[in-house]
Amino acid sequence: MIDWLFVPLAYLLGSVSSAVIVCRLMGFPDPRGQGSGNPGATNVMRIGGKKAAAITLAGDALKGLIPVLLVKAVGGEGLLLAAVMLAAFLGHLYPIFFGFKGGKGVATALGLSLGVHWLLGVAVLSTWLLVYKLSKISSLSALVAATLAPVYAWFLLGSPIMAATFGILAVLLLWRHQRNIQNLLAGTES
Fold first, then answer.
1. Domain span at residue 146?
2. Residues 3-22: pLDDT tens digits?
3. What is the enclosing helix (H) or strand (E) of 73?
């Protein structure tokens, strides 16, 4: 029963906004009020450059990676692992510490996939990189990688629970990218 305490802890860790903290520490404006208004690595790059964006990306990925590795270290799997993954992701999207206004979840989802299995993380990251190389559009890369993550989970892990969990993550990520999807369809996405 004590293992289930990882679920609220994962949400709290996910609620720590790397973008806001990095921008504060580096003297940049709050990303929620600049650029796209999204507290994520892409917007931080617009505001503060590559170094700030890289730190933000690493922080957001660690919010997914750490809870998964901790749960796996105590033998957690199946529904517990899925609940922890969803909690960390929802913490990033709707952080309690930052007025429930969080990022879109791309880096956190990558951290989750790396934590579940390194090969799954490599497949997701490789998809993002390939689509970005071909399109030069970060949001399109994220959408394609997120959509394929449940398929990768199914084939690489053979786990219906993990495939379903990554399916839920993909739906949430697509939901958070609604404006990007509209811009992609209109041909106006930067």
1. 2-186
2. 889 999 999 999 999 999 99
3. helix 50-73
> What is the separation, in whole angstroms, between the first and last Cα of the chain?
47
Which two three-digit tokens encode residue 75?
């033998």
* Torsion (CA) 151, 128, 53, 174 in degrees, nearest 10: -50
When the pLDDT of each residue in the chain is averaged and rounded to a whole number, the result is 94
Compute the distance between CA of residue 181 and CA of residue 189 in angstroms, rounded to an integer.
8
Rounded distance, CA 115 to CA 166, Å? Answer: 13
User: How many percent of the chain have pLDDT more than 70?
Assistant: 99
Structurally, the chain folds into a number of domains equal to 1
pLDDT single digits (tens) 127-140: 999 999 999 998 99
